[in-house]
Amino acid sequence: MIVGTANWNDLRGFYPRGTKPNEKLAAYAARLSGVEVNATFFRMLNPETVAAWAEQTPDGFMLSLKAHRFVSSWLRNPDKADAMGFERHLAMARPLVDAGKFAAYLMQFPGKLSAEIDIERSLAVLRDGFGDLPLAAELPDAPDAELGARIAEALRTGNIARVRHDSLASDGATMPMNPGDLAYFRFRGPAAASNVGDDGRMRYSDAQIRERAGIVEQAAGSGSRMTMVVCYGKKDVDTADAALRLTAELNRGGVAVG
């Protein structure tokens, strides 16, 4: 079970005063068990940069990388997929794979999908291109029932985890979580204004933390090799607070984190 946030740089109040930018990852990894790197969605990083992350973090710490945004366009049109793009992704992940610290590539679906898209072929192309690396797919909200069923089957066939969000109750029966090697959660943050703290940032209530811990515990008991939980949101959401409290709640429930 891995719990963390989406990036480690923009966490107000999380680091001791005077922590230097190049010291943040090590300080972060001393308190949380993993992180999702969103920067790779916007630009491909050289393997040396990624290797430095592996060196700065302890054994057992896991990183997921968000696949570059051109991968999203491949989901609409797999004919755009090219070998060089896959090679660059594989090279970027290699230092983490070699260190035993690679959790998954997170692939973001386009905002809207139509039934005419050959989603089965798209996901098959991506699975082949990424080889045996763990993959998670972040889908647009509430696809229609027929398309949702097609996506669910294509994800199952490719052993690709479907990312789950806070709106778990509204996900619909047509999009069950696929059993497999990986379970992936991204909790966006509470919407209730009553959860706003004195600093103006939103925090989960204790009941909301317990609810999410219970859902994650079910995934942990489903036989998945790894469960990755990422707390993220805009700057008005205290993601570090959520990750730390969720870790504590899971530990209290007997689920080992990290």
Identify the notable features of this structure and list them briefly:
alpha/beta; eight-stranded parallel sheet; 8 helices; 8 strands
What can you tell me about this protein's structure?
- An eight-stranded parallel β-sheet has the order 6-5-4-3-2-1-8-7, with helices on one face.
- 36% of the residues lie in helices and 15% in strands.
- The longest helix has 17 residues, at 83-99.
- The chain is an alpha/beta fold and 258 residues long.
- The chain is built from eight helices and eight strands, in the order E-H-E-H-E-H-H-E-H-E-H-E-E-H-E-H.
Mean pLDDT: 88
Global Rg: 18 Å
Helix-strand string: EHEHEHHEHEHEEHEH
Shape: globular
Uncertain parts: 169-176
* First and last CA, distance: 6 Å
Write down how many β-strands occur, each being a DSSP E stretch of 2 or more residues.
8
Write out the strand line-up for the largest beta sheet, numbering strands in chain order.
6-5-4-3-2-1-8-7
What percent of residues adopt helix (DSSP H or I)?
25-40%
Secondary structure category? alpha/beta
Q: Major sheet, described briefly?
A: 8 strands, parallel
Approximate strand percentage: 15-25%
Helical segment tally? 8
Give me the secondary-structure topology.
Layout: E1 2-6, H1 24-29, E2 34-37, H2 47-56, E3 62-66, H3 70-76, H4 83-99, E4 102-108, H5 119-130, E5 135-138, H6 145-157, E6 161-162, E7 182-187, H7 206-220, E8 226-231, H8 239-252
Parallel strand pairs: 1-2, 1-8, 2-3, 3-4, 4-5, 5-6, 7-8
Helix pairs in contact: 2-4, 3-5, 5-6, 7-8
Write a concise synopsis of the structure shown:
It is built from 8 helices and 8 strands. It is an alpha/beta fold and 258 residues long.
